[in-house]
Design a protein that fits this description.
Order of helices and strands: EHEHEHEEHEHHEEEHHHH
Number of strands: 9
Largest sheet: 7 strands, mixed
Structural class: alpha/beta
Mean pLDDT: 94
Helix content: 25-40%
Radius of gyration: 21 Å
Strand content: 15-25%
CATH class of the largest domain: Alpha Beta
Distance between the termini: 65 Å
CATH superfamily of the largest domain: Vaccinia Virus protein VP39
Oligomer: single chain
Number of domains: 2
Bound molecules: S-adenosylmethionine
Low-confidence stretches: none
Length: 273
């Protein structure tokens, strides 16, 4: 029987759509290939449906949960599984480096999808299997030349290989969200797989500048967003003339540039500025 916690109203602001479809839970755990050597990080306990499945298969599970009203569910999980540690905090504020996990599996609260994903990408881990809103997931895995390709695709795929596992309908959750969801598998790239960057922060600024105008040419996008890379327009025009001489095609549309090309552009701009 489910533990009772008063008349708990699920909080939409905390993304509290809990999984109820056990096949989807299994799909996520299988995609992460959880075994008894794994230390897993989960964000958002909810009623513990995913936590229990992880605990059965892993050596240890850390689950971070913000909403203390879910304590009765935490107690039930801990009573059944001694290898679960619940951390009552905001996942965005926890120093994740202090938890030595190697895998991440979570049905994410969608309002923190973007910041928590970027937090993960700066860390070392083997694999992350995460549930996102469908549209967000499509943007994460999008390739150059498609309409979903954007800043998120480049920022994620620079650091990781991403695989779309499956679409998940609203009926898999309670209460039903208004939108579809999807499971994505993220595998961090090895250092030798990453394109060389002269400066990581500058690359991130160039990506932001470019994708503010993703349908424009590279030249127009950079000129329109020169402030993002801390250059005034005249300085930038000189640099772009030099780039032209180096045969970098400035007339290409931004959304057609692959990550290698963007890294090359960022490095050239960094050297010429
Ligand atoms: N894992 C459960 C499941 O699959 O049913 C719950 C998933 S539910 C989509 C997201 C959970 O994250 C909720 O329990 C919510 O309270 C919690 N949450 C929301 N924001 C959070 C934050 N910033 N840090 C930690 N947990 C958070």
């Amino acid at each position: 029987m489910e533990p009772r916690c008063g008349i708990m109203k699920q909080n939409k602001k905390l993304g509290q759509c809990f999984l109820k479809d056990k096949n989807i839970v299994k799909k996520a755990v299988d995609a992460a290939d959880i075994n008894k050597n794994d230390i897993v990080l989960e964000i958002g306990l909810g009623k513990g449906i995913l936590t229990k499945e992880l605990a059965k298969n892993a050596k240890k599970v850390y689950v971070i949960e913000l909403d203390r009203r879910l304590e009765p569910f935490a107690e039930e999980v801990i009573a059944e599984h001694l290898n679960v540690d619940v951390i009552w905090n905001d996942a965005l504020k926890v120093n994740l480096n202090e938890l030595n996990f190697n895998k991440i599996v979570a049905n994410l609260p969608y309002q923190i999808s973007s910041p928590i994903t970027f937090k993960f990408l700066k860390m070392d881990f083997d694999v992350a299997v995460l549930m996102y809103q469908y549209e967000f997931a499509k943007r994460m895995v999008a390739k150059e030349g498609t309409k979903e390709y954007g800043r998120l695709s480049v920022a994620v795929q620079y650091y990781a290989n991403v695989e779309f596992i499956c679409k998940v309908p609203p009926s898999a959750f309670s209460p039903k969200p208004k939108v579809d969801s999807a499971i994505v598998k993220i595998t961090k790239k090895e250092p030798n797989e990453l394109f060389h960057l002269e400066d990581e922060e500058f690359f991130e600024n160039v990506v932001r500048a470019l994708f503010q105008h993703k349908n424009k040419t590279v030249k127009k996008a950079l000129i329109n967003s020169s402030h993002e890379i801390n250059l005034n327009r005249d300085e930038l025009k000189d640099i772009l003339n030099n780039l032209n001489n180096l045969k970098f095609n400035l007339n290409e549309r931004v959304f057609k540039l692959n990550i290698k090309k963007i890294a090359e552009l960022s490095n050239l701009l960094y050297e010429l500025k």
